[in-house]
Amino acid sequence: MADDDKQRNQCQLFDKTMTEEEIYDEIEYEDANEGMVAITHPFSPSDIKLSNPPMNLGDLIEMIDAGWINFGTEYQRAPDLWSKKKKSMLIESVLLGLRLPAFYFEEVDKRKWNIIDGLQRCCAIRDFCVEGNMELQGLEFLGDKFKDKCYSDLPFETRRDIKMLPITVNLLAKGVPDSVKYVLFKRLNTGGVDLTPQEIRNAVYHGKAIDVVRDMSKDSVFIRFFGNIKKDRCQDMDFVSRFIAFYVTDYQMYKPDMDSFINEAMELLKQDKVNVEQMKSDFHNSLKLCEMLFGLKNAFRKPLRDSERRGPINKAYFEVLATLFAKQFKHNGDLLVRNKDLLLMNLDTAMKANSYGSLFSGGTGAPYSVNKRFVATASILEQSMYGLKAKI
Question: Domain residue spans in the chain?
Answer without folding.
Answer: 3-41+178-385, 49-172
